[in-house]
Amino acid sequence: MRRAADGRADGISGADMMELAGSGAVLRLMQWIDGWPARQRLRIVVLAGKGNNGGDSWVVARFLQRECKIPVTLYSVCEIDDLKGDAKHHAEIAKHVVDAEEGVMELPPSALSAGSVIVDGLLGTGLKGAPQGAYQRIIKQINESNLPVMALDVPSGLDADTGDGKEAVVADLTVTMGFPKQGMFLKDGPSVCGRVEVVGINLPQDLADGANAAAEAFGLEEARRLVTRRRADGYKGTYGHLLVLGGSGGYVGAPILSAMGGVRGGAGLVTLGVPGGCLANPPLASLIFRRLGAADDRCFKASMAEELYTLLYNKTAAAYGPGTAGEADPRILEELLKTDLPLVIDADGLRLLAKNPQLLPRKSGETVLTPHLGEMKALMDGFGLDESKPPMTQAVELAERLRCVVVLKGRFTIVAEPNGRMTLNMSGGPALSTAGSGDVLTGLIGALLAQGMAAADAARLGVFLHGLAGDLWKGAQRAMSADDLADMISPAWKEISAIS
Fold first, then answer.
1. Region of residue 120 (left: phi > 0; alpha: psi -120 to 50; beta: else)
2. Could you identify which of 145, 483, 490, 493 might form a hypothetical disulfide with 500, taking C-beta atoms 3.0 to 4.6 angstroms apart as the criterion?
3. Nearest-CA neighbor of 245 among 282, 289, 194?
4. Exposed, middle or buried by CB within 10 Å (0-12, 13-18, 19+), for 70?
5. Distance in Å from the first CA to the final CA of the chain
6. 3 state DSSP class of 320
């Protein structure tokens, strides 16, 4: 990244890239705080250090002063004369329009009073070791303030290579420049970065092509490339028919949430199939509802196989597992796996598969597994794989062994393919930490499969859309339910493509 900062390729200057970084960060900041109560965004406090990260801060402050109606103050740990190169260039431009204090060794109480929004540009990617001096004091002040924080490039104090950051700024949103940094995904990185958004800065193509990594980041631009406009002459049959199979006597909500995800994901038709004793009435008017077995059957049984064959007619994808609980007979899953139908397996369906590994034939089928860490452990045990390895390695090894796409859910959800390709999802945050959010994801991926999307693309797009739906929720993060999440899929589609 140093070559990019020096601006020695493709005619793009470091000063121009700094301008793009700062303006892009301001756009993300304004989108982030849009809709907050006025008392929680009374002022924006921008913090600048000595390096290029500090230069980004001066650009951010200048754009905010021009575009934002909220008071903006910049605090720099150094004097402008101590800056060099592009950082000094932008500071000299901004000092005429920005309310700034230079040589700050600690923040005044007014900077950390209620209603402040912090923009952290103290330390960038070059940090090695723990922060010292004024940086250490100010970082401690930020973390003790409990104020909302947006970090520029990486949270100050985080090692961008190793992920060491026990004394780092704890950010709610990190706007990173060009590419995500490796340290964001390692050790302390996931806990201090918050949401991560990437700002393009016109990096030279040779740098982009040469950015070798074990995994790729999957963000908004990648999602947009997978979304095409709908046919003007399309109808419900054009966009596939998803079958959701789930539920048991004690878990009736999970398959409904999956079916809602299927509807919001764009499937032309969604059929929900449940054991006969699971749901008494159709849960949603937009669904086709079918009960399998007798009225007192509280779980899936082998005797329902004949009904399943009828139910599979004209379906273009299926999703199995949400709410099935531990007593479901493996016969229904076995029959699904014998078909050529694209399939998502989730929740107790994964545990059932782990107990019956012989059910999954070794074939290159369009099958997506969506485990969380506990279900992943069961799968690794069930298929004789080493569960002590890092999550990324586990996901790839399971995908290769089972010839399936593996979606290992968590912070920066991993999508691994049988060919070894792996992506890390850039959307999503604490709002998704609610019961049923994974069930919505199951239906969402199933809907994309039903519309004919390849399994890996359906998994990546579904995971990103799911996380983005949570990011766009304007209520309190801790108050969002999975029902709310399903409703947020529509605005998430609009964020990806206005004509989606």
1. beta
2. 493
3. 289
4. middle
5. 35
6. strand
For the record, the structure tokens of 451 come out as 């519309």
Q: What is the pTM of this model?
A: 0.92
- The amino acid occupying position 449 is L
Collapsing DSSP states into helix, strand and coil, what is residue 423?
strand
Q: How far, in Å, CA of 243 to CA of 342, rounded?
A: 10
Laid out side by side, the sheet with 405-408 consists of 216-218, 422-425, 414-416, 405-408, 367-369, 343-345, 317-320, 241-245, 269-275, 288-292
Q: What is the pLDDT of residue 207?
A: 47
Torsion sign over Cα 7, 11, 15, 16: negative
Task: Quote the tokens at residue 116.
Answer: 């402040």
Say how far apart CA 43 and CA 38 lie, in whole Å.
10
Give one DSSP letter per residue of 214-259, joined into a string: SSEEE-HHHHHHH--PPPTT--GGGG-EEEEE--BTTB-HHHHHHH
Distance CA(139)–CA(193), nearest Å, equals: 14
Strands 422-425 and 216-218: parallel
Structure tokens at 298: 């509280």
Could you tell me whether strands 72-76 and 43-48 are parallel, antiparallel, or unpaired per DSSP bridges?
Answer: parallel
Closest residue by Cα to residue 157 from 134, 178, 179, 180 = 134
Q: Please tell me the chain's helix, strand, coil percentages from 3-state DSSP, rounded to the nearest 5.
A: 45, 15, 40
Q: Among candidates 410, 291, 226, which has minimal Cα distance to 395?
A: 410
**CA-closest candidate to residue 328, choices 301, 306, 290, 308:** 301
- Which residues are 405's β-sheet partners? 368
Which SS3 state, helix, strand or coil, does residue 432 take?
A: helix
3-class secondary-structure state, position 101: strand
Give the pLDDT mean for 85-114. 95
2 pLDDT band (50/70/90 cuts)? very low
Q: Which of 147-151, 169-173, 253-257, 363-367 has the lowest mean pLDDT?
A: 363-367
- By DSSP bridging, strand 116-121 and strand 149-152 are parallel
Report phi then psi at 161, rounded to 5. Answer: -100, -45
C-alpha 46, offset from chain centre: 26
- pLDDT > 90 fraction of the chain, expressed in percent and rounded: 84
Residue showing tokens 């930020």: 142
* H-helix or E-strand spanning residue 151: strand 149-152
Residue 184 tokens read as: 């964001």
